[in-house]
Amino acid sequence: MTTASSPSPSLSPVPVAVLVSGSGTNLQALLDAFHGSTLARIARVVSSRDGAGALERARRAGVPTVVLRDPDDADELVRALGDARLAVLAGYLKRVPPAAVARFRWRLINIHPALLPDFGGRGMYGRRVHEAVLSSGAQVSGATVHYVDEEFDRGPIIAQWPVPVQAGDTPESLAARVLEVEHRLLPLVVQELVRQGVPGKPVKVSVQQPNFDGTTERRKGDA
Q1: Per-residue pLDDT tens for 62-90?
Q2: Active-site residue flag, 112
Q3: Whole domain around residue 50: which residue ranges?
Q4: Catalytic pick from 35, 112, 130, 183?
Protein backbone atom coordinates (compact mmCIF):
# COMPACT_ATOMS: atom_id res chain seq x y z
CA MET A 1 0.00 0.00 0.00
CA THR A 2 1.29 3.46 -0.87
CA THR A 3 0.59 7.06 0.00
CA ALA A 4 0.39 9.36 -3.01
CA SER A 5 -0.23 13.06 -3.31
CA SER A 6 0.71 14.20 -6.82
CA PRO A 7 -2.20 15.63 -8.82
CA SER A 8 -3.31 14.16 -12.12
CA PRO A 9 -4.53 16.73 -14.63
CA SER A 10 -7.87 16.13 -16.31
CA LEU A 11 -9.34 17.85 -19.35
CA SER A 12 -12.90 17.43 -18.11
CA PRO A 13 -14.49 16.64 -14.74
CA VAL A 14 -14.14 13.01 -13.75
CA PRO A 15 -17.57 11.31 -13.68
CA VAL A 16 -18.48 9.94 -10.25
CA ALA A 17 -21.42 7.65 -9.49
CA VAL A 18 -22.97 7.55 -6.03
CA LEU A 19 -24.78 4.47 -4.69
CA VAL A 20 -27.52 5.12 -2.13
CA SER A 21 -30.25 3.44 -0.13
CA GLY A 22 -31.50 6.14 2.25
CA SER A 23 -32.06 9.85 2.74
CA GLY A 24 -28.84 10.87 1.04
CA THR A 25 -27.16 13.36 3.34
CA ASN A 26 -23.71 12.16 2.26
CA LEU A 27 -24.87 12.39 -1.34
CA GLN A 28 -25.89 15.99 -0.65
CA ALA A 29 -22.44 16.71 0.73
CA LEU A 30 -20.94 15.43 -2.52
CA LEU A 31 -23.41 17.36 -4.68
CA ASP A 32 -22.59 20.56 -2.80
CA ALA A 33 -18.83 19.97 -2.87
CA PHE A 34 -18.62 19.29 -6.61
CA HIS A 35 -21.26 21.69 -7.90
CA GLY A 36 -19.58 23.53 -10.75
CA SER A 37 -16.28 21.74 -10.14
CA THR A 38 -13.80 21.29 -12.97
CA LEU A 39 -12.28 18.34 -11.10
CA ALA A 40 -15.20 15.93 -10.67
CA ARG A 41 -18.93 15.79 -11.28
CA ILE A 42 -21.65 13.62 -9.81
CA ALA A 43 -22.72 11.94 -13.02
CA ARG A 44 -25.39 9.55 -11.76
CA VAL A 45 -27.05 8.27 -8.61
CA VAL A 46 -27.88 4.59 -8.28
CA SER A 47 -30.35 3.44 -5.61
CA SER A 48 -30.98 -0.02 -4.22
CA ARG A 49 -34.65 0.88 -3.70
CA ASP A 50 -37.38 3.11 -5.01
CA GLY A 51 -38.49 5.83 -2.64
CA ALA A 52 -35.05 6.57 -1.20
CA GLY A 53 -34.86 10.23 -0.24
CA ALA A 54 -31.50 10.48 -1.99
CA LEU A 55 -33.25 10.13 -5.34
CA GLU A 56 -35.11 13.40 -4.84
CA ARG A 57 -31.87 15.14 -3.89
CA ALA A 58 -30.33 13.91 -7.15
CA ARG A 59 -33.32 15.01 -9.22
CA ARG A 60 -33.25 18.49 -7.69
CA ALA A 61 -29.61 18.72 -8.68
CA GLY A 62 -30.35 17.54 -12.22
CA VAL A 63 -28.39 14.31 -11.81
CA PRO A 64 -29.67 11.19 -13.63
CA THR A 65 -30.93 8.41 -11.35
CA VAL A 66 -31.28 4.65 -11.64
CA VAL A 67 -33.22 2.33 -9.33
CA LEU A 68 -31.87 -1.21 -9.42
CA ARG A 69 -34.40 -3.95 -9.98
CA ASP A 70 -32.03 -6.50 -8.44
CA PRO A 71 -29.07 -5.14 -6.45
CA ASP A 72 -27.55 -8.64 -6.48
CA ASP A 73 -27.29 -8.58 -10.29
CA ALA A 74 -23.70 -7.58 -11.05
CA ASP A 75 -24.35 -6.88 -14.72
CA GLU A 76 -27.26 -4.57 -13.91
CA LEU A 77 -25.18 -2.68 -11.37
CA VAL A 78 -22.23 -2.26 -13.73
CA ARG A 79 -24.57 -0.96 -16.44
CA ALA A 80 -26.09 1.47 -13.98
CA LEU A 81 -22.65 2.86 -13.08
CA GLY A 82 -22.11 3.66 -16.75
CA ASP A 83 -18.96 5.62 -17.53
CA ALA A 84 -18.18 6.49 -13.91
CA ARG A 85 -14.46 6.49 -13.14
CA LEU A 86 -15.18 6.30 -9.41
CA ALA A 87 -18.19 4.88 -7.56
CA VAL A 88 -18.99 6.00 -4.02
CA LEU A 89 -21.20 4.05 -1.61
CA ALA A 90 -22.91 6.72 0.49
CA GLY A 91 -25.41 4.99 2.74
CA TYR A 92 -25.72 2.05 0.35
CA LEU A 93 -26.91 -0.93 2.38
CA LYS A 94 -26.53 -3.77 -0.11
CA ARG A 95 -23.47 -5.94 -0.64
CA VAL A 96 -21.87 -5.20 -3.99
CA PRO A 97 -21.77 -8.44 -6.02
CA PRO A 98 -18.22 -9.82 -6.33
CA ALA A 99 -18.30 -9.64 -10.13
CA ALA A 100 -19.07 -5.92 -9.93
CA VAL A 101 -16.30 -5.41 -7.36
CA ALA A 102 -13.87 -7.12 -9.73
CA ARG A 103 -14.82 -4.85 -12.62
CA PHE A 104 -14.49 -1.71 -10.46
CA ARG A 105 -11.48 -2.87 -8.43
CA TRP A 106 -9.96 0.11 -6.54
CA ARG A 107 -12.65 2.37 -7.99
CA LEU A 108 -15.36 1.53 -5.43
CA ILE A 109 -15.23 3.29 -2.06
CA ASN A 110 -17.53 3.37 0.97
CA ILE A 111 -17.97 5.56 4.03
CA HIS A 112 -18.64 3.88 7.37
CA PRO A 113 -19.67 5.61 10.63
CA ALA A 114 -16.98 4.10 12.89
CA LEU A 115 -13.25 3.47 12.95
CA LEU A 116 -12.82 0.24 11.04
CA PRO A 117 -11.89 -2.55 11.42
CA ASP A 118 -13.94 -2.24 14.62
CA PHE A 119 -17.73 -2.02 14.51
CA GLY A 120 -18.11 -3.13 10.90
CA GLY A 121 -19.43 -6.11 9.01
CA ARG A 122 -22.77 -7.48 7.93
CA GLY A 123 -25.70 -5.69 9.56
CA MET A 124 -23.53 -2.97 11.09
CA TYR A 125 -25.02 0.28 9.85
CA GLY A 126 -26.86 3.28 11.25
CA ARG A 127 -27.90 3.20 14.89
CA ARG A 128 -26.53 -0.33 15.38
CA VAL A 129 -22.98 0.93 14.89
CA HIS A 130 -23.28 3.70 17.46
CA GLU A 131 -24.99 1.41 19.97
CA ALA A 132 -22.11 -1.04 19.61
CA VAL A 133 -19.52 1.70 20.10
CA LEU A 134 -21.19 2.94 23.28
CA SER A 135 -21.73 -0.59 24.62
CA SER A 136 -18.05 -1.38 24.12
CA GLY A 137 -16.90 1.50 26.28
CA ALA A 138 -14.75 2.89 23.48
CA GLN A 139 -13.59 6.45 24.07
CA VAL A 140 -13.26 7.30 20.38
CA SER A 141 -15.43 6.64 17.36
CA GLY A 142 -15.23 8.31 13.97
CA ALA A 143 -15.65 7.86 10.24
CA THR A 144 -13.78 5.66 7.78
CA VAL A 145 -13.53 5.79 4.01
CA HIS A 146 -12.32 2.50 2.57
CA TYR A 147 -12.18 0.51 -0.63
CA VAL A 148 -15.02 -1.92 -1.27
CA ASP A 149 -14.10 -5.55 -1.66
CA GLU A 150 -16.06 -8.79 -1.53
CA GLU A 151 -16.77 -8.56 2.21
CA PHE A 152 -18.65 -5.95 4.21
CA ASP A 153 -16.34 -3.23 5.57
CA ARG A 154 -13.13 -5.18 5.05
CA GLY A 155 -11.47 -3.32 2.16
CA PRO A 156 -8.24 -1.32 2.63
CA ILE A 157 -8.69 1.90 4.57
CA ILE A 158 -8.16 5.17 2.68
CA ALA A 159 -8.73 7.72 5.45
CA GLN A 160 -10.20 8.02 8.95
CA TRP A 161 -11.23 10.89 11.20
CA PRO A 162 -11.77 10.25 14.91
CA VAL A 163 -14.68 11.61 16.92
CA PRO A 164 -14.36 11.46 20.73
CA VAL A 165 -17.16 9.75 22.62
CA GLN A 166 -18.51 12.16 25.23
CA ALA A 167 -19.90 11.44 28.67
CA GLY A 168 -23.65 10.98 28.43
CA ASP A 169 -23.61 10.24 24.71
CA THR A 170 -26.60 8.43 23.24
CA PRO A 171 -26.58 6.64 19.89
CA GLU A 172 -28.34 9.68 18.45
CA SER A 173 -25.91 12.28 19.80
CA LEU A 174 -22.87 10.28 18.75
CA ALA A 175 -24.38 9.61 15.32
CA ALA A 176 -24.96 13.33 14.77
CA ARG A 177 -21.32 14.22 15.44
CA VAL A 178 -19.99 11.35 13.34
CA LEU A 179 -22.31 12.29 10.48
CA GLU A 180 -20.99 15.85 10.50
CA VAL A 181 -17.48 14.44 10.08
CA GLU A 182 -18.65 12.12 7.29
CA HIS A 183 -20.02 15.09 5.37
CA ARG A 184 -16.58 16.72 5.46
CA LEU A 185 -14.36 13.68 5.05
CA LEU A 186 -16.04 11.98 2.09
CA PRO A 187 -15.83 14.90 -0.39
CA LEU A 188 -12.20 15.49 0.57
CA VAL A 189 -11.29 11.87 -0.08
CA VAL A 190 -13.12 11.84 -3.42
CA GLN A 191 -11.36 15.06 -4.38
CA GLU A 192 -7.96 13.64 -3.50
CA LEU A 193 -8.50 10.35 -5.32
CA VAL A 194 -9.60 12.22 -8.44
CA ARG A 195 -6.58 14.51 -8.19
CA GLN A 196 -4.41 11.39 -8.13
CA GLY A 197 -6.13 10.12 -11.26
CA VAL A 198 -8.19 7.44 -9.44
CA PRO A 199 -5.18 5.16 -8.85
CA GLY A 200 -5.44 1.56 -9.95
CA LYS A 201 -4.08 0.35 -6.63
CA PRO A 202 -5.05 1.02 -3.00
CA VAL A 203 -3.75 4.30 -1.60
CA LYS A 204 -4.10 6.23 1.61
CA VAL A 205 -4.71 9.95 1.42
CA SER A 206 -3.99 12.85 3.72
CA VAL A 207 -6.73 15.39 4.36
CA GLN A 208 -7.17 18.43 6.57
CA GLN A 209 -9.12 17.46 9.66
CA PRO A 210 -10.65 20.06 11.97
CA ASN A 211 -9.39 19.73 15.52
CA PHE A 212 -11.90 19.92 18.31
CA ASP A 213 -10.63 23.38 19.20
CA GLY A 214 -11.55 24.64 15.74
CA THR A 215 -8.04 24.57 14.23
CA THR A 216 -6.92 22.11 11.59
CA GLU A 217 -4.24 19.49 11.32
CA ARG A 218 -2.96 17.19 8.61
CA ARG A 219 -3.89 13.57 9.13
CA LYS A 220 -2.92 10.53 7.11
CA GLY A 221 -5.36 7.83 6.14
CA ASP A 222 -4.14 5.45 8.82
CA ALA A 223 -5.07 7.78 11.68
Answers
A1: 999 999 999 999 999 999 999 999 999 99
A2: yes
A3: 12-104
A4: 112
